[in-house]
Design brief:
By secondary structure, this protein is α+β, with helices and mostly antiparallel strands. The chain has 16 helices and 23 strands.
Length: about 550
Amino acid sequence: MKLKRMLSLLLSAVMVLALAACGSKTATETTDAPSEETDNPKVLTMAVSAELNTLYPLNMDVQNNVATKLCYEGLVNYVDGQVEPCLAESWEFSNEGKDLTFKLRQGVTYHDGTPFNAEAVKTCFEFAKDNPNFGAIRAACNLESVEVVDDYTVTFHYPNAYFAYLYDFCYPEVMILESPKVILPEEDENRYMTMSGVVGTGPYIYDEIVAGDYVRFVRNDNYWGETPDYDEVIVKYIPESSARLQALQNGDIDMIYGSALMTWDDYEQATSLPNIKGIVSSYDSNTRNVVLNAGSAKLGDLKVREAIAYAVDKEALSAGLTLGNESAANKLFPEGTPYTSGSLNVVRTYDQEKANALLDEAGWKMNDSTGIREKDGEPLSVVFTYDFGNVMNQSIATIIRSQLAEVGIEVTTTGQDMMTWWKEGASGNYDMTIWNTEQPYTSPHNFFAPMLNRSAHAPSLAALPDISQFEACVAEFQTSDDEARIQEIFDYLLNFDNDNVIDLPLLYVKDMIVFNTDKISDYTFTSTPMFFDIRQLTPAK
């Protein structure tokens, strides 16, 4: 019954998110388009694999990663492990860490002419507080109230201290400041599913969308920060990877950005073309990771999950899929992630002999005629699901299927759209599923916090004999700012997860960019490389 209640809560939030992804629009009404027409506007053209018709702070669709920083901004930014000012110039905690006060930047205006001030911030985050899409982000869902102190001072009141409140404000795709005018009224049943427009404070204005073709952004001439180089940005909808490469070669687009849109074979092919340059981020974005379902019939035995961990050759994945650019992950989070530097009780590296021994001990015997292990007449067959929106996922699943076949495990791989994959994962309808970790500013806290009720981990953890201490630790770190205790908690959580083989980290993700050197001379990655930042781009002279 406990799992059923958890899934009911999770699926209601997921369905809201799914419906949000179905929202669409044809144009955004704005007032701040460039004031002067030019005969030869400077245009940057890029591509995505799905239409940018849900560019709202309601979901974390990877397609939006190339565009969210064009039009939106948050109170703060995450830069090289530190929180830095953006629309908030300064901040301070008070009342034993339960109150967070921001001093806001003055002279900022939304694209629709609405003033950016404390009232706007209050409206945006009161909306987020009640929105089920924000249920895992404590800085939003844990809010008691937002107080307007004066026009440019706002205080967030919380029931308890929490070490990660400020980091939660660093989400560049959801914890941003949209115009209050695009939030639907409370009586509208679609309030948490869509918005009436794409309107932020960023350097570019969402100007028009042509369904099935492109989205056009125009420079915000009233932008408070440094004036952008380009007059316009065109984001073309090109669903096929090969077609995106062809468009780059033909000059129809100027660049392709990010590991969600390119495999490393795509990257190598692109950089072999004349006048095409590629750059790889020096930062690890997150971790390619597989969740193993301890609640499934075939993976309920810890020895089987351990065998899978030993049978997966991560070094082969690194070399074969990423040309060695993404290193094998023996820990769940990349080096430098806060609170994750502690040692693990066991580190499992590729050992096919050990994998076979564990499967033998678990009673799964090899059928030499089929090459598939069996027990009580049942084959050791598992279902491996993944979100096909990330171009690497299918290749990862295919290689792991081949590696597990070598120890007698039959794998059926199933690519799903994002909402189906999420819903099925939360319901436990999988044996293995690709479920990558969070970004550096939200790890490890916002990876562990949803495990009990909002991710594919929930049905897996619920099947373990005793998770009471795990549950207590997850609850405790969300109400603490005691650094030493938080470190102890994450040492425990990481080892519990690893000892029970709930997660199988594979590779540390690197993001990359390829571009036409006739149009672009350089790009400098930020420490949040999953998100494209046009201010880091240097146009060709």
